Structure formats: C-alpha cells, structure tokens
Amino acid sequence: MNPRHAAALALVGWYLLIPPVFSAMGGHPRAFNDLNASLNKWDIWASFESNTTCEKEKDRIRNEAPLRIKFAHEHPDQDRNGNIVAVAEAWQRAECIATDDPRLKEK
C-alpha cells in the first residue's frame, strides 16, 4: 500500500448517525421527525475511530430501542408527544458512516 493511501485511511473516522427526530435530548429540539432525511441532515450520535466500535454501539442502541417503545406504550404519560417512540425509531435506522463519505457533503 502506498504510504499516502495508508495515511489517508488512518484519518478516516466513523460517525454513528441517526435521522433527525423531535427530541429535547441533546439540547437540539426539533418541530418535526424526518426518518427519511438525506444523510447530510442526520444527527451525529457519536464519533468513533473504527467501524468495529461504531457497529458495536449501533447494535447496542438498536437492541435498546424496542425496550423504549414498549415502555412508551405501557406508560403513555411518560412519553411526551411520541418522543420516546420517535427516538427509538430513529435508533432502529442508525448507520455507521465514514467521516469522509461524500453523502455527508451533499447539498
């Protein structure tokens, strides 16, 4: 492998992205849910140095999502405006994307 290519690969990180959803979590309240938004509009849930660690976190939050949906249905008074369900659905769609993926720069 060319040393320049190796250096370029070493600089690539990974984002765990989720679609934009209405949520007061993270201090970014939204007035809409857009589970089908293009990747450049998705929220960065976390950053990772490797795809392997990103995939592990993605699996963890995907496994947690059904429990949150079940909780929301069992305790509707705790779920303001479907917030828990919306976030859980976004987690189900979470994706690990390389930081240099051109889809993140689309206009």
Biggest beta-sheet profile:
3 strands, antiparallel
Which strands sit side by side, in order, in the main sheet? 2-1-3
Number of domains: 1
Helix proportion:
40-55%
Instruction: Evaluate the radius of gyration.
Output: 16 Å
The whole-number mean of residue pLDDT values reads 77
Your description of this structure?
The protein has 107 residues and is an alpha+beta fold. It has one domain (3-104). 40% of the residues lie in helices and 14% in strands. The chain has helices spanning 3-11, 51-74, 83-92; strands at residues 14-18, 43-48, 95-98. Helix 2 runs antiparallel to helix 3.
Short description, anyone?
The protein contains three helices and three strands. By secondary structure, it is an alpha+beta fold.
Which helices and strands, and how do they pair?
Elements: H1 3-11, E1 14-18, E2 43-48, H2 51-74, H3 83-92, E3 95-98
Antiparallel strand pairs: 1-2, 1-3
Helix pairs in contact: 2-3
What features would you highlight for this structure?
3 strands; alpha+beta; 14% strand; 107 residues; three-stranded antiparallel β-sheet
